[in-house]
């Protein structure tokens, strides 16, 4: 009996607990619904929902029944007592007099409540009030007009708003306005950019591309950044060749047309800021020419920065200049000039073969005057070294003269003068004999056959000559010499005029000292010397 009462009491208690739990759940649901409705009422009372936001609540439309709601949107269709808002599935029911106040295509704000039809459970929106409001285009212009100069962020916010609306309504015109707002924001950023560095401008160019804005404007930013980088390096007294080389690679990679040589080289001053205005105004074809101008400036600076202070690498850089900058190939000569100066400063250390190669190169480059200077300076130095060496030194001088000037008469004259200074020198004797000469008195002569000997000159008698005469005076007496040779000695140049052949030939010797003209210093015939 007690057990039965106990079980009955337990069942009663379980029922009470179950009832309490159900009541609790009911209260919780009611509170949640109240909060949702209250929230919706608060939101509805503060501002109108956009059609997009109203659509986002579609799964909860049932909970909005009999709740006052305000919605803004665009009318797509309109009749006497109903209308549709763009991109909204719920029909809107309104009074006929309210329908006469609006028209299709207008932007409106409607206030009313959601109701459910009894027979179909279909949801409708009963409009209690409808008002025509400014469209998105007008709102855009109002907001744009409120943005102060120098402010970039408000333009980006306006662009986000316009693009969101344009995407929802598939409005291409509003999308154009959104892009325009972003462009205005980026232009403002570029205008107020401080400090204006190549890195900051490159960053803005990337941002323009990320936002899919006008590519031409992105190129303007990128060009300005690279222009600033190049001109800053050029102004630097000692630019870093490696940094310039890196810049050249960047220009080649980023700017079309940079590697294409110009049909005609027109010098421009890239240091002037007007270059940026000209670039901005240029069409795409002319911008490629500006890209090449920038590449030329950077490449020229890079090659010049690699020139060694003594000019020893001038030949290599001249060739590189001609290949990479064909528009300015003639300017490569400056590198060759530096190389020539380097070689001229080291003439004393050159071998004869090196001198011959150097002078041959100079003459090939139409620098015969420099080649002449090089030969003269080298011979003078060799003469200074050879004189203390006696006959052997004279022979070396003669050999050098013959190899460099290809002048046999001058070579023999050097040997003859050497014999007078060093008579009976064994080395000189061997040199003469090796050339087929024989000693006659104190002069060395070469035996000529009578059949091959030309007649002697019909010059006036040597007695009419006098030491100290100028070349013109001697020429007026004897006429122009059939042959003439010139020697370069340490004491100065010596020139020989030779009239006739054989033992009776007449030889005039002219000497010139520092700062003085040639004067006759001696004259003789082989027979009486």
From TrEMBL:
This is Uncharacterized protein. It comes from Planctopirus limnophila (strain ATCC 43296 / DSM 3776 / IFAM 1008 / Mu 290).
